[in-house]
Amino acid sequence: MLAHLIDPFTRQIGTVDYRGDQRKIHCCLDAMHIDMMRLNRAGDGMYIDDDGFAKDPVRQAYFLYWQESDEGGGGARVVAGKALVVGPLVGGVPVAPTIDVAELARRVIWIDAAHAVAITSRALRSGSGSRHGALLG
Hints:
Helix content: 10-25%
Number of strands: 12
Number of helices: 3
Shape: globular
Radius of gyration: 14 Å
Oligomer: single chain
């Protein structure tokens, strides 16, 4: 089964082989700790680096992910580091994401560290951010 890898370091979105293995997620994201954010009502999710914003911003890469309001949130979320988009579990088995690479490309905006820090700082002051980034509605 395939999953989609969003790589802000290379500014590319591609596919990787994924069979539900947690080690594969950690390896793809270059992350020790991971978290999941829901992407849509179909059950797709995005694994992200749980410590992404704690890393040196000079060595980190960022992107904005736009989520439609009818998909459980709405607005743009700043993501620090790579992200792995996976499909829902069906009978305990992961399936391919319903969202395709072309749609992900329409929803991802590459940003630099200065913009990521500024957006996240503003969101934290306004109460719409967390250590996982800012949700801009």
